[in-house]
Amino acid sequence: MYPEAEHIYHVPMLPETLEMASFLKYKGLTAGQLFVGLEEETVRPLGINRRQMNNLIIIADPKRGKTNAVRLFLQQLNRMDDARIAISDSEELAFAKAAADQDWMYLDSKTDIEQYVDQLENDLQAREEEIREHMQTSLRSRPEIIAQYPVHYLVIDGLDGYVHSQT
Questions:
Q1: What is the predicted pLDDT for the residue at 5?
Q2: Over the chain (167 residues), what is each successive 10-residue block's mean pLDDT?
Q3: Contact criterion met (CB below 8 Å) for 89 and 95
Q4: Of 47, 88, 110, 151, which residue is least crowded by CB atoms under 10 Å?
């Protein structure tokens, strides 16, 4: 500290390494957010509101961390009670064991995908009927009612594997 300075200034610095387990235990994480890392300037968690996210596509060259990003999202989603996860794995099968352990729907074949689509359509159709009923009988808004329902996530790690499983 310089003698003429009245205050000590905190300069945020990115850590050299950031372990996923440590990151997910950080007290500054906000509920309902999916976090992707730290913002460079403030060194605070950078996240996406999962209820406002319609689509998320991670695109990069091979070996650039796409599977790790998917793993980070899945660990966070798995902590939430209202997440319904279906996953199509890459040829490396990085998520096959986790899907079995966590009771996620594993989309490994054309039949699995067709079954998933049918199940999702039925679930969403029943949900829409229930939402309309609730809107007519309660004073709650549509977004308030929708927030009570689980969120469905279709996670595709490796588009080549997904396209291959459909043929």
A1: 63
A2: 65 80 72 81 83 79 85 87 88 88 91 94 96 92 90 84 60
A3: yes
A4: 110
**What integer pLDDT is reported at residue 137 of this predicted model?**
93
CA 19 to chain centroid: 18
- Give the Cα separation of 47 and 32 in Å (integer): 9
Q: How far apart are CA 67 and CA 80, in angstroms?
A: 20
Which of 15, 53, 13, 54 has the alpha carbon at shortest distance from 34?
53
Q: Are 11 and 40 in contact (CB under 8 A)?
A: no
Long-range CB contacts (within 8 A, 24+) of 72-81: 72/20, 72/35, 72/36, 73/34, 73/155, 74/98, 74/155, 75/20, 75/24, 76/24, 76/34, 76/35, 77/34, 77/50, 77/153, 78/102, 79/24, 80/50, 80/151
Question: Domain residue spans in the chain?
Answer: 82-165
Residues in CB range of 117: below 8 A, 6 or more apart: none
**Pairing, β 151-156 against β 45-49:** unpaired
